[in-house]
Design a protein that fits this description.
66 residues; 0% strand
């Protein structure tokens, strides 16, 4: 596999990951948003360092119902 093929495969995944991180962080900083554990700073670390899994964990586990 050459470099061009690798870029074609990885680029969409990287874009999806970055978009998910941005959406999750934008949701997290909303003043009315409540999260499990009441620790938004910890959830921000999970979102950013968790790569693709971090934002998904936030959306499915971290957010509390309004």
């Amino acid at each position: 596999m050459d470099t061009g093929q690798l870029v074609v495969i990885l680029l969409p995944l990287i874009v999806i990951q970055l978009v998910l991180i941005a959406i999750a962080l934008r949701d997290l900083v909303q003043p009315e948003r409540r999260v499990r554990g009441s620790n938004k700073a910890l959830w921000a670390v999970v979102i950013v360092l968790g790569e693709l899994l971090g934002p998904l964990l936030y959306f499915f586990v971290g957010r509390e119902a309004e």
